[in-house]
Every structure is written in C-alpha cells, then in structure tokens.
Amino acid sequence: MKNTHVTTTINGDPVEYLCDTRETMLDVLRDRLNLTGAKEGCGTGDCGACSITVDDRLVCSCLMLGVEAEGKKITTVEGMAEGENLHPLQKKFIEYAALQCGICTPGILVAAKSLLEKNPNPTEEEVRFWLAGNLCRCTGYDKIIRAVMDTAADMRGAS
Amino acid sequence: MALDDRKDTDFKFVGTRPDRPDGHDKVTGKARFGADAHAPGMLHGAIVRSPHAHARILRIDTTKAEALDGVKAVVTRADFAHGLSGEFGFVLENVMAGDKALYDGHAVAAIAASSALIARDAAKLVKVDYEILPHVTDVDAAMAESAPILNSSYADASVPEGLHPNVVRYHESGHGDVDAGFAKADLIIEDSFKTEATHQGYIEPHACLATLGSDGKGELWCTTQGHWIAQKTCAALVGIDTSQLRVTASEIGGGFGGKTTVFVEPVALALSRKANRPVKIVMNRSEVFRATGPTSSTSMDVKIGMTKDGTITAAQGTFRLQGGAFPGAPMEFSAMCAFAPYALDNVQQIGYDVISNRPKQAAYRAPGAPMASFAVESVIDELCKKLGLDPIEVRLKNASREGTKASYGPRFQRIGLVETLEAAKSHPHYSAPLKPGQGRGVSCGFWFNHGGETSVSLALSEDGTCQISVGTPDIGGSRASMALMAAEVLGIDYENFRVTVADTATLGYNDVSHGSRVTYASGLATIKAAKDAVNKLCKRAAAKWGIPEDAVYWEDGCAKPSGANAGNFDPIPLAEITKNMGSTGGPISGHFEATPEGAGVSFGTHIVDAEVDPETGKTAVVRYTVIQDAGKAIHPTYVEGQFQGGAAQGIGWALNEEYIYGEDGRLQNSIFLDYRVPVASDLPMIDTVIVEVPNPGHPYGVRGVGETGIVPPLAAIANAVSAAAGVRLRHLPMSPPRILRALKAQTRED
Prior knowledge:
The structure holds 2 protein chains of 2 kinds. Chain A has helices spanning 25-32, 88-95, 105-118, 124-130, 142-158; strands at residues 4-10, 13-19, 51-54, 57-60, 73-75. By secondary structure, chain A is an alpha+beta fold. Chain A has 2 domains: 4-79, Roll (Ubiquitin-like (UB roll)); 88-158, [2Fe-2S]-binding domain (DNA polymerase, domain 1, Orthogonal Bundle), CATH 1.10.150. In chain A, strands 2-1-5-3-4 form a 5-stranded mixed sheet, with helices on both faces. In chain A, a hairpin with a 2-residue loop joins strand 1 (4-10) and strand 2 (13-19). In chain A, helix 2 (88-95) crosses helix 5. Chain A is globular and about 50 Å long. Chain B is globular. The interface between A and B is large, with 61 and 58 residues.
C-alpha cells in the first residue's frame, strides 16, 4: 500500500496530506483532515450531502479522488462563515427552519451558495433544479427553497 | 397530568417560533452525527453479506481474511449471545445470520481492521459456502401453498389452522354485523390493492463507534431514535449487563422509524471485545437499502357499502403485510387505522403478518397506516364518484367525533377530524379552478400517537439559567419545544435554557423517539419537572419570608405571596433564589418519570392537485395542502415542517419509491439513483393549516404531529390521478410504466 502526497488549499489554508489512491476526497476530508462537515449519504453522487467546491465548481466529494485535489482550491461548509459571522444562507436556514435533522444541510448550503454566486436572482424553478442533486428527506424542500430565495433577495438588496 | 390543570390558554412562550438551539452547529458542519466520531486506536469494521435470498450457511472460512495485514478481529454468529428468544432473538438473527441467510444482504460475518479500506478488502476474502434454497419475496406468493418455508416455528397462537407457516400472526377486530350493513347499502364497491415496500430513506446511514472490554463494560456512540432500546438490545445480544453499557445518541440524520432498532451496533461491540480496541462501523447506502428498514409491502381487499345520501353502512378490509424474514409486520396497525376516521355501525378488519425473503421490516412513520388508508380512501372516492357526492361532504357525514366508538374499539375523546375537514372545505385550494388535464384528490388519515416511558431532569444554575436533560433524540426540533414549555412554567425567557439529549447513564429509561411521542411525552415530563422545580423555588421563598409553603405561588418568573393574609413581600425573581441556593437548602432541580397514557389521537385531511402526462405516464403534483390537528402547536414552524415532510414522503411512496426484487430474489435498486426519493424539482410548495383541538391528556393540549402527515398522501394522490387521467391505480407506486399500462388498458376497454 503506497500513499500519495498531495498539496492543496482547503478553505484558504495550505494543506498537505498522504492518501491511498482509492480514497475519495470525502474520505480524505472526513477521516484524514477531520473536516466532518461534508457527509456521506450515498457514495454514488446521488444525494449531494458531500457537496464541496473545487476551483469554484460544485462537486460531490464522494465522486472525486483525494489525489485529484493536488493544486486545487477546495471549499467546504466549514469555510462558509467568516470568523464568528455566519453566511447569510446559514442565518436564513436557521430562521426559516430550513433544516430538521441537518444531515443534508452542509451540502445544501454549499450548493445554494454556489448557485447564488452564479445567479444572484434565481427563480423558484431554478432553485429547485439547481438543488435537485441534494436530497432532503425531512423538510419536503418547501422551507429550503424559501430560505434560498429570500437570502438571494436580501443579498441583492445589500449589494 | 390533564389539560385542566392549566385553565388559561394565553401562552407567553408556547406557540412562538424561536431559532432552534442546534441550528448553529448544523449549518456550520460542527454537529456530530453517527459517522463523525473518532477514538484513539480506533479500528474500522466491515460486514460480509449474503448475496442469496435464501441459503443454508454450510461453512464460513475466515483464514485468508485474518491473514491480511491490519485485520484485528473477525466475528460470526458464534461471537454473540446464545439462547435468546422473542424480539431479541429475531434482532440477533437479523444482525448476524445463524444457520441460514434469509435475504439478499443478510449479514454473515464481520471484520475489524486498521483502516476502512483494509476492512473492505478483508471482507472480500471471507469464503462462505452456501446451499441455495428456494425463496419468496412477494406477500401473496409467500402465503400460497407452494411457498418455501422460511421458519416453521415463527407462527404464534393467533394464526388460524390451515394457513401456510409463513403466516406468523393474525388479527381480527371490528363491531356490528357487516353482512346486515352491506344489505342496507345502495352501492357496494369491493376492490383489491397492492403497495410495494418503501424505505425510510434517511440521508444518514447507520453508524456507530463501540468499545467493549473483556470486563463486560462498554461504551457506544450511535445514530439512533432511542439509545435505551439500543442499550438493552445490544447488551442482550453481546451478553453483558444492561447498565454496564453506556450509550450516547449522536445527532441523528433522519430516522422516520428506521432507527428504532439496531443493526451494526452489536456487531461493532462484538468486534471491539475481540480486538480490544474501539471499532467504528458505517454502513454504505447499498447496505442501508439491502439490510435495514424497509416498510412492509401489502396486498389488501376493501369492501365498503354506502347509501345514496353518502352514509357508510358497512366496511370490511383484509390487510396482508409481508415484513421480511421475521415476525412483526404492522398488520394490526393497518387494520386498526384503516377505518378509524369513520363512525361505523358495522366494521370488520383482518390482518395477516407474513414472512418472506426480504430484510426485516422496520417502523416507518405511522407504520401500517398509509397503505390501509390508500385502499380505504380510494374505495370511498370511487363511491363518491359513482353516487355523485362531494368527497369532503361524505367524509364529514361519516366522520368520527368525540364519543364515537372507534373502528378499533375504544370511544374517542375530543378529536379534531371534523375541524380538519371543515378547514379543507373552506380552504381556497378546494375551490380553485383546475387546468385541463389536472385532477383533485382528497383523503383523510389517522394515527394513534403514543406515550411511552419518559424521564426528564432539569437543573437550575446559580445565575438563574436552566439546563434540561431529556432522553428522546431530537429528530425535528424537539429541544426547542422542550425549552418553550419549560419557559412557560418557569416564566423565564427561552434563551435561558440549554436542552441536552442525555446519555443512558444520566437518566432513567426513555422509550424511543417514535409514535409521535416526543413533544407529547417528553414535553409533559418537562412541564412536570419544571413544576417540581417551581415548588422547590416557592419553598425557598416561603422559608425566607417565614410563611407557610402553600402561601407562596409562582408567576412571571417570581415567587409571590398569595394575597394579603400571606404577608406583604416583594416578589423574588428566580435568579435571586438560585443565587443563594447552595446556602438555603442546596441545588434546585426538578424531575419527572412516568409512562403517560394520554397521547391524543391525530387526524389530518390532505388536498392535492395532480397532472398526468398521457404520453409518458409521469404524474406531477402541482398543488398540495396539508390540514392536520396538532392539539396545540408548541413551535408552529416545526409543526409545519412535520406536515410538509410527511407529505413529501407520501408523495414519493405514491409515485416513485419501491423495492424491486429480481427473479433471483436480489434487490435490484439499492442506490438512490435507482430508488428515487422526491427531489426539489419534483415537488411544489406544500401549504399547511394547523388545526388546534386540544388533547385532554397533555397539560398544554399537545398531540403528536410527526406521523399522521404520511397517512393521507397515498390515497389523495391516487384520487387526484383518477380525476386527472380517468384511471384508478390500485397498485403503488403509480410510476410512469404503471400509469401507462392503466391508460392503455382503459383505451382497449373503450
């Protein structure tokens, strides 16, 4: 068993690690780097609970190998808040009860943030289709969609 | 313990919508779920599973696996307790097969190794010799004379003679004379229905971290709806004393009934004992589908008679449920819930619990009720159509009310079914125009709700804040609700509370977070524990003032003298009393332990508009409204969340979700790509109406709200599809191929 050395950037910090070539990025984040915010719900890219961004692109970290992070810029849910200040999406998710059990929440927040960076004024349909890769079994999505739409409106107002 | 111990309904905190205490950790990724725990020296476990639906295990050869570098322990059935019977026996047989593998995915051995990769590699090196046996996975086929026998000793005394040994339990209930009732009907409809098995579909797979020493002392961290049931079950399965196993519940990533039992936990404990190291096991999604959950699949016959004015004269139902390879399919709940919304003079219901080569069924949100409701409410819809009657008027005409003798026996206390139907009738949704190609469906639903063993402890701090320990894992915001109820009693703000789900060493036994019981039972216990603390606070004030204890009362967070005779003293706020509590008699806390039995039953009415694409057979839900009696909504936003979540799961059950078994008895769709739960783009917004008809069995009138919401959607959507496309679907899910077949059959008939 020979491990590979990887140098990357995670949430703005330079990070180095060794990993087996079979390990997914999600395995590396969770088991080697103790960043357990991203969750494994399926391991097949169907549930989105492990969503991260890689060079600003939304990715299921269970479908990416740990060695593929070499030279990339990774962000996870742990990088969303700035210091003690929560991201507007994080605040709104609490306010709107857009989470019940919370296991899908990190992935949905990362995905929603990625949507708003690309499209600050999404329609309900656009939000629903963008988040179609993030399963939530508790909420029926109603409060999640409302929280994302309302955050978008707030952020447009603030900028 | 009754409603009348609080006369006013003018709440200060109950009914408000503060932020949940676990919100911050859950949006930042800090919340620790089952798979998020690590321990020094931890090993990783992997489980070897049967690829066969039914096979005798001839030999398990673990030598190659054990020889792999990094492998520290291998366990098989021999490493667990012997001689268990009853439910513990079934659970052990389910978590680790004995002589036979009983379904595709049944665990037969397990490995602990220094990394997850090595454990998985080693699992592939375990060689199991099987003698493949004939299998059966369909409920009707499992009851047929020619069906293979899974276990000839499982049937209990309730089963009538002459039935196949796969029928393991039988239920019959009802009242009146159904034959006489049918004779009075102007129209009788009798139909047969089937529903396929669905999975609870929680996004968090089962996960645990276990430590067990040869001294018989253990620690277990796991994702569970009930850590005391996990404690006693695991202790029995690995043969240690219950109190020597301390179990801590992680944050739980959804359960819906599926995390009310154990799967990997006893296996991790057995591996840990053998390796003398902590062992973590995390299931992958395919293991979750193949070996945990699911619901029963069903085969049902329903016959209902009605007069021209819409009065139901008699109702009869037969509910056959397969619950996998072990007894326990909730057929009695199907039978008892089926006709509960209606006041019937003549009703009879029969249930069969059937075993088959599938995973052991687990509870799923109102277990057994949604399927029965699908069959009954579909037949009522057909009767309304044929007689030209409005479906809400007919339901109102026959609705169960206070005093009605329920179809399952007792007389209803105060209930809110009529109120939900009236709210549905006057809701703008019910009168909104439909577009061409759309249809509207309505259905009622019922669930019992549950009390269960409950212990709560509450302790005041010197600064006047309060910590509450509850034993019911928080699956929908219950920590916020507990704080609101305690705030109401103590008269101090919500922000002063910290609510913790305590471990098994901290509190007495608590039943599982199931049966929609948490806000009811833990809520009741929290109120009682807070009142216990209030009594002690009043006592301290009485001592200070030198007046009798009963001359002091509690109001707005202060002890006050009760009237002029008691004396003229300034009120003492809570924080003033706690500040000096160490020197005035010691720490002040409140406790309550009981098994409350006043869980009020719950009814709901759903309205749904659906649109069917005649070319693809795909059904779109275009509008949805949930109306349900919550008794009293402690945190209305979280009540809405329960309604919406129940509806969404019901929509999945109605339209997409199903376990698909091949001829070989193997599950064909064990990942989320193939077992498709509703995604955001499948659903509309889900409107909610909270009806509040107080439950006489709770101090604030609370009824559980978690489960009823999944009962009406199956029939409501089937009724909407029938109205939209002119075809009656009697087999769930109403997936595009089934709808297309129904449309084609209808064309041929025309």
